[in-house]
């Protein structure tokens, strides 16, 4: 490490504005040192395939019109949310053609002429559309092997259609409209799973905001040295994730990394930190990561359902009692987000900072 100027190397990389894909296009065979991750001593790094638990796959029945057995669906959602914090959904109501077009839009954006793509490269937090490599590039202990396009789609003030990149504008608008509808349905199910009235979580505006975060993971020449995304939980109420066929997403369950195997046509749903806070730890926001891979590019699109207004959120009073006192302070989404970003993806939960 003698003579290694990490800060200068990161700055030179960021100033180039060509991202991880730029490194791959340049033909590198060894990844820069600031992408190197130390071994994770807290958990087994390799998954054990024999007897590995499976992330639940739930048929919502929306596409087929068979949403009659609602109580059974609510119970499956409750069980998955209390144990894994993750599940996949089929028959969710979003056409396959829209899913395919969204993934293709992300590929098209990242694989277009560099000069066009670079116009969106920024770290200006006031922008509603940002393209860069790692939001916490200068703060995190090690960088992740991915490039990211972030679009703040709701609530107002949000990205205007003309702000969105030409390569994916129409599909981003269509896909996020579909996800926001699905989000409303999912929050109904979560409300019922918590024993609340159906509209409870929608009425307190958990589905008001939507941030689209698309990741492009180029093939990595040394995947054993880095990660696509560090261990983390999500700073929202709920995440709806579209992933392609390559895989690499893993959930930490009982101190073991469990693969979230891609299921054709499915969307991955996971509880965010703020929904765990609202439920007073009944629903679990679980740490997850993405492994780097020699195969690629891998593409995923995460929609974070949140609310960027100054409304205060705390454990839901209807869920509290003498045997279940509040475990968290009341906070705003803004307060949580500021702390989460300042901490970066360092492998620790930001929720702990707000415990009573």
UniProtKB/TrEMBL annotation:
Domain Fe2OG dioxygenase: 208-308
Keywords linked to the UniProt accession: Iron, Metal-binding, Oxidoreductase
Pfam families the UniProt entry points to: 2OG-FeII_Oxy, DIOX_N
GO molecular-function term, one example from the UniProt record: dioxygenase activity
The keyword Protein biosynthesis is assigned to this record: no
Keyword Amino-acid biosynthesis appears in the UniProt entry: no
PROSITE patterns: FE2OG_OXY
UniProt xrefs under Gene3D superfamilies: B-lactam Antibiotic, Isopenicillin N Synthase, Chain (2.60.120.330)
Origin superkingdom: Eukaryota
Xref: PANTHER family: OS03G0690500 PROTEIN (PTHR10209:SF859), OXIDOREDUCTASE, 2OG-FE II OXYGENASE FAMILY PROTEIN (PTHR10209)
Record family assignment: Belongs to the iron/ascorbate-dependent oxidoreductase family.
Entry protein name: Fe2OG dioxygenase domain-containing protein
């Amino acid at each position: 490490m003698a003579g290694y100027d990490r800060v200068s190397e990161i700055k030179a990389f960021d100033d180039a504005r060509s991202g991880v894909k730029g490194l791959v296009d340049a033909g590198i065979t060894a990844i820069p040192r600031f992408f190197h991750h130390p071994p994770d001593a807290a958990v087994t790094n390799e998954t054990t395939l024999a007897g590995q638990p499976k992330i639940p796959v739930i048929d919502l029945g929306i596409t087929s019109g068979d949403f009659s057995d609602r109580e059974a669906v609510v119970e499956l959602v409750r069980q998955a949310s209390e144990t894994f914090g993750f599940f996949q959904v089929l028959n969710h109501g979003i056409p396959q053609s829209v899913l395919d077009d969204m993934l293709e839009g992300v590929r098209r954006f990242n694989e277009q002429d560099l000069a066009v793509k670079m116009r969106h490269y920024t770290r200006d937090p006031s922008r509603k559309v940002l393209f860069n490599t790692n939001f916490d590039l200068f703060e995190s202990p090690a960088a992740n092997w991915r490039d990211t396009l972030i679009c703040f789609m709701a609530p107002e003030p949000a990205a205007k259609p003309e702000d969105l990149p030409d390569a994916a504008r129409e599909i981003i608008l269509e896909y996020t409209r579909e996800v926001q509808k699905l989000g409303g349905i999912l929050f109904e199910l979560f409300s019922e799973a918590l024993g609340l009235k159906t509209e409870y979580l929608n009425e307190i505006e958990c589905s008001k905001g939507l941030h689209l975060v698309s990741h492009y993971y180029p093939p990595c020449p040394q995947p054993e040295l880095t990660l696509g995304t560090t261990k983390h939980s999500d700073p929202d109420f709920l995440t709806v994730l579209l992933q392609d066929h390559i895989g690499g997403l893993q959930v930490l369950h009982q101190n073991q990394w469990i693969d979230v195997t891609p299921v054709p046509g499915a969307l991955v749903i996971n509880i965010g930190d703020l929904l765990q806070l609202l439920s007073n730890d009944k629903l679990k926001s679980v740490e997850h990561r993405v492994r780097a891979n020699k195969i690629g590019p891998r593409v995923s699109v995460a929609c974070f359902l949140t609310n960027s207004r100054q409304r205060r959120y705390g454990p839901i009073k209807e869920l509290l009692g003498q045997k279940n006192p509040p475990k968290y302070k009341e906070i705003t989404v803004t307060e949580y987000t500021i702390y989460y970003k300042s901490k970066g993806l360092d492998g620790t939960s930001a929720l702990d900072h707000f415990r009573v």
